[in-house]
Amino acid sequence: xxxxxxxxxxxxxxxxxxxxxxxxxxxxxxxxxxxxxxxxxxxxxxxxxxxxxxxxxxxxxxxxxxxxxxxxxxxxxxxxxxxxxxxxxxxxxxxxxxxxxxxxxxxxxxxxxxxxxxxxxxxxxxxxxxxxxxxxxxxxxxxxxxxxxxxxxxxxxxxxxxxxxxxxxxxxxxxxxxxxxxxxxxxxxxxxxxxxxxxxxxxxx
Length: 205
Description:
Elements: H1 6-31, H2 35-57, H3 68-83, H4 85-88, H5 94-116, H6 121-142, H7 148-151, H8 153-171, H9 176-197
């Protein structure tokens, strides 16, 4: 998928918005930060994974700093969460659902960007996972929590699965959009399954 295409841009910006909401809601519900902290944490959560991905790919400056829409979407999503935080708090598990949505979209968009810039099959899958978990990891570090990727077995694994589907679909000639959607849906379902049933990967006994 051409990363300049409208489809890719929609995937990436939607993931940015979802993670901005997630980071900002985390700031309001868990860390109890003020408006500056809320917007800052939302933006770090939304943009961190993409910055890490682009830096590893040598795509400098990162897309975040080349297209004003990334910063605007991240700031806007954070502000929405700050203003409507108490209303959103009434939903069942808003932070986890938004986290799963952002995880899924970034896993796919990160993997596809890796492919476009010449990464191999395995490298593209790993880049997709890094893009997906990077922002959430930075979020958790900033609020002094152990990153979800280290404590939840079904966090990095869904990202890898979603990225794998997107990359495999590209390699076998499946149209970009169906393979991207399939990868994102698979990632989301695995993550939410883990959340709902409290399932983790096997741990040492």
